[in-house]
Amino acid sequence: MPNLPDLRETRLFWEQYYSGLIDGDTTLVEAPSPFAVEVSSKIPTGSTLLDFGCGNGRDSCFFASQGLVIIATDICTKAVELTASKLPLPSSAIVADGSSLPETTVDYAYLRFVLHALTETEQDIVFRWMRKYVRKQVFIETRSTKDPRCGQGKLVGRNEYIDTHYRRFLSTEDLVAAASRVGFSTCEVVETSPGSGNDGAQVLRAILG
Q: Residue 144 belongs to what domain range?
């Protein structure tokens, strides 16, 4: 099997992306995603939420405006700077990957369009952290194996491809199995087209608890 891209390559891609250096994909959306709007209706005001893979902070800032206290994380320094510049206190943004998340308990965790950027090993590390430190529920939106990008680029593993960057596409069975491996007791999964991307994305939306 070909070697997957190392963390340095992943960081470099996203630093360039959030600095506006990726040709043809330089406009960062500021409005909250439809998934964030849906999730916010399920979380009580005053709750704490970890936004893992916060990007430019579009959803983190929306959650904060709804009265949640946010810990926003991303592996990309530029993304964290963008998010931190907009987040109100007491919310915060930090550079972290799955192996360097803070040992801090939160009520909820949120992963939108980030799980498919992780290898299975990296995913399991994140899920183990969430099983230990998330008191209530984990909300996930990730590209599925029915996504139109699945199959594009260089095959590097099962449902794993490198096109402009690495992506791993998940089936419902994959996601349920991964959640079960670390001890999540419930996993609700729906496959849908969110209408929030420019490429006809097909996604899995899941709630782990």
A: 7-20+27-208
Closest among 161, 158, 162, 163 to 173, alpha carbons compared: 158
CATH number for 98: 3.40.50.150
What's the pLDDT band for 13 if we cut at 50, 70, 90?
Answer: confident
User: Considering the domain boundaries, does residue 117 fall inside one?
Assistant: yes
pTM metric for this prediction: 0.91
User: pLDDT tens digits, residue range 53-78?
Assistant: 999 999 999 999 999 999 999 999 99
